[in-house]
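User: I'm writing a tutorial on reading structure tokens. Could you give me a worked example: one chain, its sequence, then its tokens, then a sentence or two explaining what the tokens reveal?
Assistant: Sure. Here is the example chain.
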Amino acid sequence: MKKLLLLLLFPTLALAFESFEEKDCTNIDLRNSTLGRVRDQGAISWCYAFTAADMLAYTYEIKSPISAADIALNYNETSLARVMRWFKLRLQNAHKREENEKIPFETGFNKIALQQTIKDGYCPESVFPSERWIKVQNGIETSVPMINAMREISDLHITRSLLTEESLPFFYKFKNIDKVTFLNILKNKKMMDVFSQLRLQACHNDRVTIANEPSIKMVFRNKNIFKTISEQLSLGRVIGVDYDSRILVNHRNEGRKISELHTSSLVGRRWNSLNQTCEFLIRNSHGTNCNSYDPKLECHEGHIWLSSEELYSSMISLVFIQE
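And here are its predicted structure tokens:
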């Protein structure tokens, strides 16, 4: 991880990559019912966790979606995440720090998230959702975007000493978590531990272990990087790619900026005969709507085609699972 942080802090050399011929760019498309629809991380920066969930589901043919929220909150228990959160909050002004303290730490590394999940097991999405949470108020259930729910829970935590079962204005319902359990967690946990406790309580009877411990490989951008990508795609492996997200809104963007770091799944390859270039299919984690992407990029329900040149210009590293 030290090497990755150094690469993010300092610009990498503009190395040319090995160009493609059509014969080396046969069509591969790993999209299937196991991956399902593209999920939406919303306004929380847990792209690495959504990507890890895709990679694990595809690798182990897990038909029920894996909770990306569980993966991210588990990642946040690592020493690296705790240190990075501390530094991030200290570097922010008071107002921004106050807002960010209401939600769990957001950014992370796909490789570490995969390692933690393989070590501790995963929780099904149906048990601990990653997009919307169920709020119960006056007996009425409503679906709330997860990040909004987290902020409401954080605001409620401030007044926890005054809350009783009768005065609790609302609670968020999960499997194994009713009104009483929710209130107990709220009253007895520090704010930074509330969400972790919610996931642990919700998932403790449903956590699924992964039988074997595969090797998680990380490769940094180099002139032969597309050889590695092609090898992994040919083996039927979904790849996690770390890149500068600005390429998605401006296909001419070049460069890699730490504040724009984004992680997506790479799930396909094809030859574009019109442009005489090899293209790669990015499975983003911002839902199925294509309106937010550069209109010159071809998008299908949240899957975006990038040319090898476009991907290379913004790429930082790859992660893949070797069983």
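What the tokens reveal: Confidence is low (pLDDT under 50) at residues 7-13. Residues 47-59 form the longest helix (13 residues).
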